[in-house]
Amino acid sequence: MKPELFHKPFDPPNLLRYMLRHTRVLAAYLSWRILSILVTVPFPVITQRIVDRSIPNRDYAGMCLYTCYGLLLLLIHYGAMRIALKELSSNLQVMMRAMRARIFQKLQFMHFGFLDKTQTGRLLSKYAFDTQHIEGAMIPILFNVIPETVRALALTLVLTWVDPWLTAFVLLTVPVFAIVRISYFKRIRRSNRAVRLARERLTGQASEFISAIKLVRGFGQEPEVRGNMENVSDDYSASRQQQMMVNQSMNVMVFMMFTGLNLLAVAFGGFLAIQGVLTIGAIIALVSALPVILNPINLYTQVSIQYLLGSESYQSIKEVMDSGYVEKWQGKEKPSPLRGKIEFEHVRFHYPEKEELVLHDLDLTIEPGEHVAFVGPSGSGKSTTVNLLLGLYAPSEGVIRIDGVPQERLGMRYLRRNSAIVMQDNILLSGTLFDNIRFGRPEATNNEVVEAARLANAMEFIEQLPEGLDTKVGERGVSLSGGQRQRIAIARALLRDPKILILDEATSALDYESETLVQEALNRLAKNRTTLTIAHRLSTVRRADRIVVLSHGRMVESGPYQELARREGGAFHSLLTAQGEA
Fold first, then answer.
1. For residue 188, which of 122, 283, 316, 557 sits 20 to 30 Å off, Cα-Cα?
2. What pTM was estimated for this model as a whole?
3. pLDDT (tens digit, 9 = 90+) per residue, 508-524?
4. Parallel, antiparallel, or unpaired: how do β-strands 530-534 and 546-551 relate?
């Protein structure tokens, strides 16, 4: 899916229009479902004929014939329903898979300004729960409301043919149910919206605390976290209680009216029968058909609850799909071969919704194959610089060029596919070690994966594991030590064979033994490729060709390690002194 598609509104504007747009996908289902409905329409006539003709005339043959007609129609109904159900289950899942795929794909293009301030749990709620609610709304509409409406209209025509008085009574009942639906509509809509927002807050807060469970336990903050979760849970429970009260009170009202109208139908028919206007068979036809005719109106009131919940979920998804927080990159140029020359020209940057500059007028050129280290105190702009390089954010002013091509014209995913990053806390996916390494290049052979692990000094511990590369790691790789995770990440980067390598404090959290192994692997990885190292520990950047010192978003010094180290009073020399290395 092309990124430029995400700058257009997510059509259609509402759930009903979305369903109508997919009528071609559902055409086969609707055809078989309507057939299953139409073959049941003659039943009131069959009943009326048996009561008014066969029974008074003691016509056993006629009674058997009408019964056989009914049984045959039921068999056709059963066969059509089986085919319709198969079509619905298949086609509906095609629609839901496409919607989930589009949501997930949109998230891959979302601007980090949006992702940074949005809880993961809320995004998960939109991807999983909201799509589930949309599906839950579509099933009763497609399976019940639309077919039962067709059945009701057909039965009304049949009753008109039997006797117009029957239709007159039916038409009097429609406004009654319409009034009930309208009176509850707004209340249901408000309660569903409140539930949806409370659920997003609940899942977002729970996801955040669960992912930070080590932090919570380490600080002994379980009571405070439990209190926060109880407050959010109480809000959700209150909104659900209100929703249940509205829904159930409507159901009670509908039951009372439905039962009362059936009683009135019998009295109405009985009155006309006494007057000689209706036959007993016609009364039975009315009483048997009336629940079916009223059923769509009853379904409207019931399904409106699910529809409004699904509609609210659809709007929730539409908020993400219509969001303007999308990466702006739409360039298509792909320098081939990519050499890895990087130019920052008067680059200034501030984060969305903040005016304070994080980078001030950065001018820097990095030659192909050069190893440049960025150092400086926390908040000086080191990580921001590489985030801008990868296009995770766009410069507020200035231009970044790769091999002379401005980012606006560059195929950003081409750049990222030719880059690799090794961070301080690398993320491993649940699965095997082999899967995590091959994530760097999915088409790699088994031998290439093993060779990458060897070059990363990872085979040293992998071979000691009972299942070797087939060993499963826990979520985020928690079953491995920090040094082991780093070496798997390095193997992943080696397998990718990137032209541009970013090392983001890759050894700062390791013990001496692990750091030695990891640093050796990093040196091997950085060879003959453009490398940007972000470092806090200055001893790790001795091998860099050039060191760039940042302070408060400004480049204050630049040069080789030894030259900067000898410059007493300089920014780099001050950092060395602070770390006891001067």
1. 122
2. 0.63
3. 656 666 777 777 878 88
4. unpaired
